[in-house]
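Deliverable D4.2, example record:
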Amino acid sequence: MRFLEDIDPRLQAGLREDWARRRGQAVDPLPRGATVVLAGHRAAGKSTLLRKVGEALGRGCVDLDGELERRSGRFLREWVQRDERGFRAAERDCFLELPPGRVVAVGGGFLASHRDALLGCVVVLVPVSFETYRERLLGDRSRPRLRPELSVEDELKELYAEREELHRAARPLSLVDFVLRLERGKRARRVVTLPPGVDPHAFAWRARHLGADLLEARTDLLPAELQLRSTSRALPLLVSQRTSEVPAEWLALASLVDRPLGTAPGEAPGPRTVSSFHAAAPLSPDEAVSRWESVRPGSQVKHVEPLGEPRSAKRLIETRARLVERFGADRVTVLATGPLALPFRAVLARQNALDYLALDADFSAAPGQRLLEDAAREWRGPAAEGETERLGILGQGIAHSRSPRLHPQPFDRVELPADAELDALLEALIPHYRGFAVTTPFKQRAAKAVRADAAAVNTLVRTAEGYRGSSTDEAGAGAVLDALGAKAVTVLGEGGVASALRVAAASRGVTLTFLKAAQVTPAAVEGAVVWTWPPAFPPPAALRFSGATVAVISYGVPGRGIVREVAERGGVPKRLGARWLIAQARAQRALFAPSPPSGERAGERGGDTR
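Output generated by the structure prediction step:
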């Protein structure tokens, strides 16, 4: 375990055991660009650890006490003894003035006194036992007395106990947590845009709870008079200048400020500034890099382009690589926008400094944003294997989909327009996605795109030749027919799951009657029924049931709407969406395995992209 030799010897055995026990568990990696703060008791060894942590992260280091002495020209021992309140105020101001992204060792009372100043930072508690704390401070006469009215022994006991309680309340990372996250790697800082017309305070707390790191306040979306002080206590603010004026209060509260490239010609961006460029059309890497020639190396930059043709998306990866050469690995964000951009944004986010996400499906600040929930879930599984190992689900209206909960991570919900050209999209995604679940309305088009034998597929798995299409819906269809327990079943609709129902019915001796919308008459439908029409499809007005048991294979909010329709039309709804989902997902998981067994699987319908 890194850094252990610099920790209290009395604690090393326990820390080693904790690290060994937890190694391999899912942890959230360190967010790129966030300030790392080493905090804890006096004499814990923060300053000693500082250099090694900085080297491990490749970042600059600041010993805050040393920086305070340098700036003020005062000895801290005398300053604290004569004016502790003034010292604490200066300590806080000095910390807040530091450029973001450094590794900072703070003094013994900082975490207890300035907890709110650490919002948005990665705070690591450097541990020390009371015995070692006592020995070190008794042997170090250079440190100031903080409770001179007490004996030295009583002062040490009282301060240690008080600050232990305050440290626990601040909930910093333990050293083992920090090392595990460091071993896992680094991720983009998650940015959620504050929509107009919402309670900003409640929105920010919800975003923080779901894993956001920054809250974006855009001047083109929000009124200048909007008060954001309480909001900034929930999440650090990224203020984005999209109009000529930025409210002074917003600037004072901002952790980062996004200014369009060229807003201040000839001026070097400050340490809190992100320079952004939004292209009106797709650019070649040469054209893209040329836009940044006037910007000083080491600056924080954000480059945004329309995706354009999916086959050209690899240009964005090259653009990012070239910008990283100039500005540094943790200071570049490259984004794609457009109706097909989501999977490419997910790939780019693996190396970006910032990842702009939607809190929910109701508001997206740019076309192509994925959900914050998906970005946060990406890191909850075992250590990621790289950009080529992503999975996803292709469909429409899939914000409710439970598939991401059932499959290995990362698993992206890829919302597509109904007219999306799957052939070009799938070809462009082969290097980045190991496979896809496919849902309405793309099952039949996916089968055609990969030239599968089946009329519809719900699973695409990457092979050496391209994506291979399969139908695991047959497992789901079988589970639903088994639950109905009838030998004759009426199927409402004849879409993407019809072929799966036919195969499952044939193996069970079940007779199916398919009823299209145009065939519905005022005569009531009886017996056992499976409703396959999608949630957005308006059922015929003439549809009525006479006590029929109707299997509803949609789930979540859409499924609840169908259940109401069935009940209102005289049927007895039977919610079997989860049963279908789990049965087919088990079969999908086997197909998605990195090294699937050779040979055909039961129920598989094959086809390849070429």
